[in-house]
Design goal:
113 residues; mainly alpha; 434 Repressor (Amino-terminal Domain)
Length: 113
């Protein structure tokens, strides 16, 4: 047991979601809830509608600048959105068999050093 009372060895503490959540999904839900159109938001933020749409549909990564712009426009904290994007990126990389094989090869090579 750790000081926080959570045993890191418990299976439930190590479960990852089947489908990672892209921050665009959360933002898209927020816009829908508020009744804000993607086109209007993109226009008001001075950015391309297609870029915003791609982020909201999980086809493009949320970057720091856009997260900060969305924070200014919507009042949604940028840091948790960026953490979500990072977690999404890590999970997608872990599911990429070719990349994971490459990591195994690098670890084998590095073990010689």
């Amino acid at each position: 047991m750790t000081l926080e009372g959570v045993n890191p060895q418990m299976i439930a503490n190590n479960v990852k979601p089947f489908q990672p959540t892209h921050p665009g999904e959360v933002l898209k839900d927020e816009l829908d809830y508020r009744g804000i159109s993607q086109r209007a938001l993109a226009r008001d933020m001075g950015m391309s509608y297609s870029v915003l749409n791609e982020v909201l549909n999980g086809k493009r990564a949320l970057n720091t600048e856009l997260a900060m712009m969305l924070e200014a426009a919507l009042g949604v904290d940028a840091a948790p959105l960026l953490a979500m994007q990072n977690e999404y990126n890590m999970m997608m990389a872990e599911r990429n068999e070719t990349f994971m094989e490459k990591l195994k090869n690098i670890k084998r090579i590095a073990a010689v050093f």
